[in-house]
Design a protein that fits this description.
Elements (H helix, E strand, L loop, with lengths): L9 H10 L1 E7 L2 E12 L5 E9 L6 E5 L3 E10 L8 E2 L10 E2 L1 E2 L9
Antiparallel strand pairs: 1-2, 1-5, 2-3, 3-4, 4-7, 6-8
Length: 113
């Protein structure tokens, strides 16, 4: 049995979000490069990262990654611009070995003109 690698450093993830620095990590034995935009706590889960995918099995999409499943995190020197994040409807049904695609939240009401 291969021992699990330690979790990535939360201060590193927070710094990447604050400084708008891209990160590279392994998730489900696959390499991902993302722009981390938010660190959040899911309702029935631990911490999740809301990120724009630059490189990985999918590209150019918003994804949610479970913090506890991220390994070998590296901060990259590349800076990224602010992006308008879609309102997120977390469809989290517990731990999974795959990241989740972000589904846009349906509009509940519209702003008054």
């Amino acid at each position: 049995m291969v021992p699990k690698q330690p979790y990535p450093s939360l201060p590193e993830i927070r710094a990447a979000i604050q400084q708008r620095r891209s990160i590279r990590f392994e998730y489900a034995r696959t390499g991902w490069t993302v722009e981390p935009h938010e660190l959040a706590q899911a309702a029935r889960c631990s911490l999740v990262i809301h990120a724009w995918v630059i490189d990985g099995p999918v590209k150019g999409e918003w994804m949610i990654f479970r913090y506890a499943d991220m390994r070998h995190l590296r901060l990259l020197p590349e800076l990224f611009p602010a992006r308008k994040r879609p309102p997120v409807l977390f469809d989290w049904r517990g731990p999974t070995t795959q990241p989740r695609r972000v589904r846009p939240m349906p509009a509940i009401h519209s702003a008054a003109p």
